[in-house]
Amino acid sequence: MDFAKSERLAVFIDGPELRATVGGMGIDVDFKKVLSFFQGIAQLVKIQFYHIDREDEEEASLKPLTDWLEYNGYSTVACSGCETGIAGRRSNKNFLNVRLAVDALEIAPLVDHVVLFTGDAVLSPLVEALKWRGRRVSVISTLQLRPPMIADELRRKADQFIDIADIIEHIAKDAPAGASKRRRSRAQSGEAKKTKQDVAGH
Question: Which residues, 6+ apart, have CB-to-CB distance to 40 below 8 Å?
């Protein structure tokens, strides 16, 4: 991983994307460890968690988490919408992406490096805009699932792609022994494929 201790860092966490990703990997995230991890590798300016505000059981299950985050160094953003069904969920997710992009661009003048916990291709233009402003951008997701949770376009545009498998010991509760090494090996294999694709593309 390429981080400098002197860098001012902002971290934006796409809650729905993160939950889907770690759920598929069988990981339970320890947000206290996540906070400590980023505080340890750079000068953390902001860490923000985005979730969709709905009146259903899923949102109710998130309430203890978002309350804890608010009291323990995170900012949380509830993105609300009134639509229902599949189209409504997509609409709400689109609103979340827009809000995250706006917040990242607003804080860009105050930081050197932006980390995005997401794999959504929709945010590729945000990565380009941040880089155009001279900011480094890292994207955290995974290649371990099939299909991969990280969009290829987003992965290519970022200055740095970090597979969750490579930082599992820094973000997960009670990671099984040996799991990190096995997942890291698969991640490195995925990166090798990416390198071949990049070479072929040129």
Answer: none
